[in-house]
Design goal:
Layout: E1 2-6, H1 13-18, E2 20-27, E3 30-37, E4 40-46, H2 51-64, E5 69-78, E6 89-97, E7 102-104, E8 107-109, H3 111-114, E9 119-121, E10 124-126, E11 129-131, E12 135-139, E13 142-145, E14 157-164, H4 172-182, E15 186-188, H5 191-201, E16 205-214, H6 225-239
Parallel strand pairs: 1-4, 1-5, 5-16, 6-14, 14-15
Antiparallel strand pairs: 2-3, 3-4, 5-15, 6-11, 6-16, 7-8, 9-10, 12-13
Helix pairs in contact: 2-5
């Protein structure tokens, strides 16, 4: 079974349209959809925005269903210099909590400064960073591989570090600070939380984001959520061998 998480309904609506034999249910106060894509069992859930909504929703699904892989998709902001524009696609190579830690006289420092990991298991200590995968083997004949450019040639794909924040970046100063520290390509508000839950359950996770804006001065008039979401879902469906 493959679980697909997005924070908002519009970020996964196109994928939901392709599900066959759909049944619905409720978990953690949210509607989930069970169906099939290319003979693969799918469970799709819109988690709501933010780390807590994402983590609770993911944990409830992984506890209740025999999920073997997770795809987290949606929209995000590209950092300046990442080489991405609105409508392009970013694929995570790692997920980083960008504001868990401590504010010192020297500025922000991560969880290692506190000395307490967010997760410790199997001899490994996870502070701010959690692993993700660029490809998932869903079945012997079905693989989602985002290391190979997908799509129709009208958007670019790039992989790199993602930063998950509680407060979306809206100033040049904060943008520059996060760039110096993490060298990210994309910012979001849920990914690291889902990656942490997947690490706990030892389930591979792939994260794909359509670029809706460039991180910096916050100006929603320059955003394109529709294009970002449409291209993100197209890229995932293409990688699964499904033509939107």
């Amino acid at each position: 079974m493959l679980a697909i998480f997005s924070s908002m309904q519009f970020e996964s609506a196109a994928i939901l349209k392709h599900l066959k034999n759909v049944n619905t249910g409720e978990i953690a106060g949210k509607t989930f959809y069970k169906g099939r894509l290319r003979a693969i069992d799918i469970i799709l859930l819109n988690t709501g925005i933010g780390k807590v909504n994402a983590a609770v929703s993911a944990a409830c699904i992984l506890e209740r269903f025999p999920v073997e892989n997770v795809i987290n998709l949606g929209v995000g902001g590209a950092y300046p210099g990442a080489g991405l524009q609105k409508g392009d696609i970013a694929v995570a190579t790692r997920e980083i909590y960008g504001d868990e830690g401590v504010i010192t006289s020297r500025g922000y420092e991560g969880m290692e400064t506190i000395g307490i990991p967010l997760l410790q298991m199997d001899g490994r200590r996870y502070f701010n960073e959690f692993p993700v995968s660029a490809s998932l083997l869903l079945a012997p004949s079905a693989k989602v591989d985002m290391t190979v450019p997908a799509g129709r040639g009208d958007f670019k794909m790039k992989s790199g570090s993602f930063v998950t924040v509680s407060a979306a970046t809206g100033t040049r100063r904060r943008t520059e600070e996060l760039q110096r520290r993490f060298k990210p390509v994309c910012e979001n508000m849920e990914g690291a939380a889902i990656a942490q839950v997947c690490a706990i359950y030892k389930i591979p996770m792939l994260e794909v984001r359509g670029i809706s804006n460039i991180v910096g001065i916050r100006d929603k008039r320059k955003w394109n959520l529709e294009l970002a979401s449409e291209n993100c879902q197209r890229a995932v469906l293409d990688a699964m061998g499904i033509k939107p």
